[in-house]
Amino acid sequence: QVQLVESGGGLVQPGGSLTLSCTASGFTFGNKAVTWFHQPPGNRREGVVISNSDGSTIWAEAVKARFTVSRDSDKNTLTLHMNSVKPEDTGVYYCAAGIGGWVEAWYDIWGQGTQVTVSA
Q: Which of 23, 41, 40, 120 is nearest to 80 (CA)?
């Protein structure tokens, strides 16, 4: 079965850190872009970071100074390291694999999402 599985979500205090993982099952990352999306409560899903197969990344301005990402093409895992988290980072985080870009329709494989809550 082709799927992405996210893990690592939870409750974290403002200013803390959290690590999210996205692992492919039934396929390999290969030439696909793998992207983290964030859906705040009551809002639309928005892009966080695009990891391209050539090793390049494209970041959303709101997080680029606080988050880092690592892609392991042998393990087909994309890891998002969230540092100095803020309450506005709260929401469901999804990873998706596809041709790339910020447009959700360009991604054909999605994970089920993992909840991140930033609160004191």
A: 23
